[in-house]
Amino acid sequence: MNKCMERLFNGLVKENPTFVLMLGMCPTLAVTTSAMNGLGMGLTTTVVLIMSNLIISLLRKVIPDKVRIPAYIVIIASFVTLVELLLEGFIPTLYSALGIYIPLIVVNCIILGRAESYASKNSPVASAFDGIGMGLGFTVGLTSIGMVREILGVGQIFGIQILPSSYEGMTIFILAPGAFFVLAALTALQNKVRNSKGKPKAVGCSEGCGACQNTSCLGKEQTKEAK
């Protein structure tokens, strides 16, 4: 159970696909014009991640090493096709909004990367939780970007007006450049939060040892002794 929780934390925080690994940038920048689109793409990718990780892990001893990549792609493409048909049949508005980016999930480097680096080497349960963690991390990233862009662009969240009707949205945030600005700002904020934690300050220093450029500083030794 501890390993499963570790995989969830890894995907959500430690190795978040959007803000840490910077993977899947194509859908991240293209479909996050609204929070709903970001949530839909994130959850769709999560389903494919979980199922593909699970199946690849179950077949890891059966798939020949020389053809493992084509085999992974076939498995991933099968689940993407299934999810695409379900979206088209039951959520046509979301299907129309995401458009070509649904079939492009097949070549999303997050899914193939987790299949190669984790699912093919670990148990089915751990691989499924890895897919859940990475998928939720991707979903949180896309939804966060979509929320910021939607608020600044039209004053709404999930289509609900939260700013006064007199608010004139900043059009740039619902265009392509706005995606880059918001991604950069949220990534910088996330890095700031991560870097501010877990870095003890050395004796006589105003900054943590991780930010210190003085290679001859004895602060680290003094910090250890202080502990």
What are the main properties of this structure?
two-stranded antiparallel sheet, 9 helices, 227 residues, disordered C terminus, mainly alpha, 2 domains
Describe the 3D structure.
The chain has 227 residues and is mostly helical. It has helices at 2-14, 25-30, 35-58, 68-90, 92-98, 109-117, 124-154, 176-195, 219-226; strands spanning 156-157, 160-161. Strand 1 (156-157) and strand 2 form a beta hairpin. The radius of gyration is 21 Å and the shape is globular. The model is unreliable at 218-227 (pLDDT under 50).
Question: Any chance you could write out the topology, listing elements then pairs?
Answer:
Blueprint: H1 2-14, H2 25-30, H3 35-58, H4 68-90, H5 92-98, H6 109-117, H7 124-154, E1 156-157, E2 160-161, H8 176-195, H9 219-226
Antiparallel strand pairs: 1-2
Helix pairs in contact: 1-7, 3-4, 3-6, 3-7, 4-5, 4-6, 7-8
| Uncertain runs | 218-227
Mean residue pLDDT: 87
* Apparent shape: globular
What portion of the residues fall into strands of 2 or more residues?
under 5%
Structural domain count = 2
- What multimeric state do the chains show? single chain
Helix fraction?
Answer: 55-70%
How far is it from the N-terminal to the C-terminal residue, by CA? 32 Å
Number of helices: 9
Total beta-strand segments: 2
Helix/strand class: mainly alpha
What integer value in Å does the Rg equal?
A: 21 Å
Q: Order of SSEs, N→C?
A: HHHHHHHEEHH
Largest sheet: 2 strands, antiparallel
Q: Strands across the major sheet, in which order? A: 1-2
